[in-house]
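Why predict the complex rather than its parts? Because the way molecules touch one another can change local conformation, and only a joint prediction can capture that. The input here totals 1644 residues.
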Amino acid sequence: MTTLLTATKVTKRFGGLVAVNAVDFEIPEKSIVSMIGPNGAGKTTFFNCITGFGKCDEGEIIFEGTPTQRLRPDQISRLGISRTYQNIRLFAEMSALENILVGQHIFLHSSWMSAVIGTPKVHQEERIALAEAQRLLDFVGLKGQGDMMARNLPYGAQRRLEIARALATKPKLLLLDEPSAGMNPRETEDLTAFIRQLRDELGITIFLIEHHMRVVMGISEHITVLDYGEKIAEGTPAEIQKNPRVIEAYLGRGAATEGMATAHERHSDKTNSKLR
Amino acid sequence: MRTSPGERLLDLAVSGVLWGFRILLVAAILIGTIATIRAGKYTSEQWIDFVVFGISQGSIYALIALGYTMVYGILRMINFAHGDIFMTGAFAAYFLATWMNGTGFIDSYPILGLLIPILFAMIVAGGIAMLVERIAYRPLRGAPRLVPLISAIGASFFLEYAFRGFFGPGVYAYPPIKALEGEWDILGIGILKVQVVVAVAAFIMMAILYSIVMFTKVGKAMRAVSESKDTAALMGIDVNRIIVSTFALGAAMAGAAGVLYSLIFRQVGFFMGFTPGIKAFTAAVLGGIGNIPGAMVGGLVLGIFESVGPSLFLEGLGITRPYQLKDAIAYTMLVMILLFRPSGILGERITTKKA
Amino acid sequence: MTKRLLALLSVLVIASMALAACGTPATEAPVATEAPATEAPATEAPAAAYECTDALGCVTIAPDEPVHIAYWGVLSGPDSSLGEDSKRGVEIAIDDKGGKILDHDILLTTEDAGCTPEGGATAATKLATDTSIVGLIGSSCSDETVGGIATLTNAGLTTISPSNTRPVLSDPARGPDYAGYLRTAHSDAFQGKAVAEFAYNVLGARKAATLHDGSSYAQALQQVFADNFIALGGEIVAQEAVAKDATDMKPVLTTIAAAQPEFLYYPVFVAVGGYVTAQVRDVAGLETVALAGSDGIFTADLLKGGGPNTEGMYLSSPDFSAFTGDYAGFIAKHEAKYGGSTLSTFHAHAYDAANILFAALEKVAVVEADGTIYVPRQALRDAIYATKDFQGITGTLSCSPSGDCGAPVIAVYQIVNSDPASWNPADTANPNPKKIYP
Amino acid sequence: MKKENFLWSAVKTGLIVGVVAIFICFVGMVEVFSKRDVIEKLITLGQFVLLAAMFSAGFIASRHTSSLLEKNKPVSNLVAGLVAGLFTGLVLALLVVVGAEVNLRAVFLNATTTLYDVLTLDKGVGNVWILPLIGAVAGLLGAASLLLPQILRRPITQALVFVIFMAFFSGLFRVVMINQGSDMSKAAKYLFGQTGLTLEGTLIFFLGVIAVSMLWSYKGKDIQAGVTRLPKAGRLSLRVIVYALIAYVALGLPQVSGPFIAQVIVTVALFVLMGLGLNITLGFAGLLDLGFVAFYAIGAYTVGLLTSYGAFGLQHIPFWVAVPIAVLVAMASGAMLGLPVLGIRGDYLAIATLGFGEIVRLLAGSDFLAPFFGGPQGIIGIQKPCLGTLGPFIRVDVPRVCNGLELGKPQDIYYIAVVSAVIIAFVAWRLRESRLGRAWMAIREDEDVAEALGVNLIQTKLLAYMLGAAFAGLGGAIFATLIGSIFATSMQLIVSINVVSLIIVGGMGSIPGVIVGAIALIGLPELLREVSEFRFLLYGATLIIMMLAKPEGLWPSQATRRELHHTEVEAGVKA
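Output of the joint prediction:
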């Protein structure tokens, strides 16, 4: 298996605080890998480094042989990296369909002038894009809700729409930031199956941050554990579950799995309240 | 997928132009300054005068800017009517002071003759601001960001032209305080008494405001509300009351500024708030909007740039009638500072979520 | 969609009904502007024998209708005191007529022109549409006239401005668009020259500086002064400018001080004038410089804004000793009607302008037995141009073929008392300011 | 919580409205309006305003009473209205009494004896009791109006509003009608007096509107249903007819209405152009630009410099050639502005652009650049557009002769302006529906996410600035030729503020909203030039009221609309 993304000694500081400290990381092609760790461990920051949101201070990230740290987020997305957000960030005042169409932006090439004139090429392009957007909408199970304004969709649908929008960029690597946050067990199960489907059917490599241990352990092939910005462990789910440092990291703050569960719940509360 | 050559060209052009712009500005300033200084038209006393004039003007900008910045900090809203609140304060003080002057009170008790109108102006301005907040802003809380802005613009027009209706389009002369005529000698420099009083009063006022915000219960509540209205409400803070008191406090500062302004410039009229309002808003942004010390710094920087800039930068560049372009300098400075520090001199670095 | 369509449809039905109602004559009758007010008095009043032969047509006023005149000028925005001031002059003139002319009520319409050319254009267009208007007073700002005068002239109207001073407006080569334009205010060409002569010959100044506020009035006037001063042999050591809304003048005055002038001329408006005067003595190097302004600040408001420093200041203005009429009486009426003092300089000019219009109207109007009035427009215009030795309160006025009615007698006054209450240039015993030149 | 006594609440309402009425008096409105009639020789506008205040006091009190009392008792509603009106009248009476003793004029200029005369109907202070009496009656009527059944209330309200509207603009209608010829002139004189409606006119309008409104409420549903029942082809032809009618009205309007209305419409169209431009930068891309007048100025100055035969004209090129150049120059300046402020966000951007607008105005009017732009003396002698060829230069200071049709009058410029506005609206609509439009909106919603989805922020934002600027530049170009002269003083910050306001009032991001907003905020005030003193007062009040009543704008964007439609459908399905 070839490596899709390699990160070497990635470091990010906020003032005196080292959020991510010299983390080495690899994502094999067509795999599902996860990153876990307590709240504030630097997982999302690491995500941001990969997608170019906040440039990392040191280290190197190479995606399919291209160093990405000097690229802007839009250029990185063109390389084939796409993501979702911890607290859903849809374009609230746009319809669901339009949200996905924005995701297709990089595949549309008509200039504004030809759009004004309305050349046949533009119409053609738009028609294809619309069909594709519709297909993605159906794919994530939002059939018939394309005209709904994103902010008016129910929570679960918003999550799925966000994934559909990320898929519209035809990514090779999809970064999911706590996709199961705020979901009930039933929805979580569906989600797990859906993520698998993405990898198996579309061949997309998945990198996920997740608090929900059942999801993580269930689908990940490889797990990295971050604590205080440092990588404290990595390996298969089975290895991680046994790793003493991981247990300590979580246990040290209270209870082992309960602790994780509470953290998770607290977190999903937060996301919920932010929604409206 | 790789970036297209056209796109790379655009990137290059953008950063080229940006840097060109920065370099050009800095070069223009340097060349202008050097040329002016080498021409030696002004004595060092005159340079000091320029700075002193700038400080007194700047401290008034700062006082008005405080209101902008406080309201912005809490509501993320540009209170466009703030300049006109300043005007209402000046009018209130004018009528009181004229009456007091008629009775000879001001001449016999100059300090009280200064303080009472200021207090009165603060009360009137605060009251009007509360009224404006109640009618034009409160029902719009939670509306899209620009809706309160338009309402504020409407309030600004309304106040201006209501006062024009009340008091006519002419100007009124603020009564002079005899005790404040002449100069004081400070460190060997003769400085006008009025200017000293205005600058000192402005600083005292700002210090009081700063301590209110930092150390009192209300101030703490204000800061809490500015962090998050919801959380503050959960903590048992009456958010509405805090917002109203923020408006009132900011408006009181503007009212006081109105009196100080009238003391220096002596003219009170219905349109007097417009330009200082815009300038103070600029000052607030310059310092980093939402930040109280930032408003002070922004006001002073703006005042000094306006005063010194035309002579120092423009004359050396051979630009005729430089003072006509005083405001252009102020705004160019603003853009330049934002180019180097996109969130103002003392502003928070992270502006992502604020907009 | 259907609902919206329907709403639209209903609006359109109403609109088309209205259009049909008033649209039919659009094909029959020629378009309004082409034949203004020739609206057949023959059909209207069959008894009347008068037939309008005027080149510009006539205004017909039925027995029960008022005589309609209009005032246009700046009535909103920061400059509104200028326009409001003139408007009051017109209103007092109407009051003095008892509100009646030729036994008809006088109806005054006002239009805001906002001190901008586009405001002037819009106001003029609106007024030109109203065929009942006989004559106009206005505009306030020269910019407004530039924007609107062609429209008014072409509509056959005549306007008398009380406060435009830009020289080009009454230039002999001003062009046919200005045929309907006269003014009782004086051209700045006279004024700048008078001040220059005063400064050079009387005060003996050789180094002068000027300051203007970016308005076209001030900029032009200080340039006239500078040209004349240089022509006399003097030196202009500094020509500076500030923005119209500037308040802190000390920096620019410091710049002027560096050039060490003996005479500082700032022919600006009241706001800037007040600020400059109040602050000028505080600037090192300008403690003793002679100060001079012009008619833009020839008002008690300058004393309010300028304070004690105004004492000793020179102001050029129309010569008030030539004010033959009862200016004090005018001021008393003003006080009674509006409370407080006048707002600007040109109320008296507006009063005179209105009276010139009335006089001309009384001269040319044809009054029928039943009270119907016909006002031939060209004749009215000619009558205004023919005004000679009119006894106004600003002096004895005669209109030139290029539209200058104001007596170009410019005097220089000196302020002797900085108390606004003492302002009375027309007083014979204790005038303030006092005329000192010529 | 114990509910308030309804009488006490009515007293409060009466007092508050009374204070508002005093405000209206002191602003000077009552006195000035008392010189204008609503119905000739019967009721002046000033009296009407006061009556309306008392009436609404009664109305508000009555409505409040309904909410206070559990059981609906019409008598208490009427009593509340009476009390409220009475107290409003009492407050005003108090003003008269106090005013007779104390010289309020020392502070409030409009507290004149004329005002007191108006308030007491010229009957003197001794008869001041008449005020509360009138107040009580008006309040009672106000309360009674609430009790009317809906079927009557709506037509009466509509008729009243229409009559007031006609009375307010009577001068305008009268002049337009008189200019149509003698028949219309007679009709005009029958309907309109010198400053208001005649009694006959009032009755005709009042009854006419009531009739139409009643008809609509009885038959409206049938007509609506009739249209929906039409076959597709029928509806299509109906639509074609409607569009043809619109075109017919648009073409004929300036010829009928005369130059003033044409000029007002041109002004509105210019603001529509600017509004559409800013709608791209602000409405679509969310970039708050408070210096938008700069591009307008640049467009105007470019045309001025290129076509003027005055002192500063560079070339006497034809208008039609100058306009595209002006648009391109404005576009370039849009890029010039856009580049340095690319990284600035939110309100920082607002003030930076405001600065840009001010810099452009200051430079254009400055002495420093006066040799190029005329400084305060402006650029005059801008050539009018000519359909046909322009004659050769004869002298620099003489306009070239137009061999053909010269479009000099406002009615002619009208066509240029309206056609431009229609074309630009179409362009804006196409842009909105394109990939670029979606990218702009994505930036407006969340800049970071848009970038992460591959939207090139630099390119997209720059295009927003450039296209917005181009539209405004076109507006400026037409402005220059309409007025024939340009001065820097025309390019004030207030223009930018107006443009921002009209976009929000119309509905942000909505193209028809821009047009509606421009009509409401630019067209109406232009028509109100007669009441110039209160123009901006009313304008300010309107802005506040509109934001309170319809914060989403008068004609919200399609997304909102579609959303509403969607919920409607859902509701339909459920039902």
